[in-house]
């Protein structure tokens, strides 16, 4: 069985069009920037689950700061670099990251209670 076919059967087909198209990013670029930002939040200054009840200023700041830098690089690569697109793409990714990290903190908090 082909690897892609097996993955599609397990998680369903991944959409090829989405919010990333509206902000001139590819799906891979959008998901990579989101994953990078979430990974920084989770692992910067040690794993989040070991520091869930501590302050997160550096963790939050750097995980959001990487978003416009990575978006600018991706849009420049795509030859779609415009200020409005940088702001729109950064905002969409930041909102998605906010939801994901808030859910993650809730899950970690419940698991440690």
Compile the SSE list and pairings:
Layout: H1 3-11, H2 19-22, H3 27-43, H4 57-77, H5 83-112
Helix pairs in contact: 3-4, 3-5, 4-5
Q: Count helical runs.
A: 5
Question: What's the alpha carbon Rg, rounded to whole Å?
Answer: 16 Å
Mean pLDDT: 87
Globally, the shape reads globular
Low-confidence stretches: none
Helix content: over 70%
Major sheet characteristics: none
Question: Count the strands?
Answer: 0
Q: Which structural class best describes the helix and strand composition?
A: mainly alpha
How far the N terminus sits from the C terminus, by CA atoms, comes to 43 Å
What proportion strand?
under 5%
* Topology pattern, helix = H, strand = E: HHHHH
Task: Tell me what you see in this structure.
- The protein is mainly α and 113 residues long.
- Helix content is 72%, strand content 0%.
- It has 5 helices and no strands.
- α3 (27-43) crosses α5 (83-112).
- It is globular, with a radius of gyration of 16 Å.
Quick description:
The protein is mostly helical and 113 residues long. It contains 5 helices and no strands. The N and C termini lie far apart (43 Å).
Main features:
single chain; 113 residues; mainly alpha; 5 helices
């Amino acid at each position: 069985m082909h690897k892609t076919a097996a993955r599609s059967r397990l998680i369903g087909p991944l959409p090829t069009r989405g919010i990333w198209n509206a902000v001139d990013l590819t799906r891979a670029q959008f998901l990579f920037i989101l994953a990078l930002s979430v990974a920084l939040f989770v692992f910067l200054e040690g794993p989040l689950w070991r520091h869930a009840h501590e302050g997160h200023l550096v963790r939050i700041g750097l995980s959001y700061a990487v978003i416009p830098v990575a978006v600018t690089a991706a849009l420049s690569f795509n030859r779609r670099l415009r200020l409005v697109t940088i702001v729109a793409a950064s905002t969409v990714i930041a909102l998605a990251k906010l939801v994901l990290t808030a859910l993650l903190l809730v899950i970690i908090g419940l698991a440690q209670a």
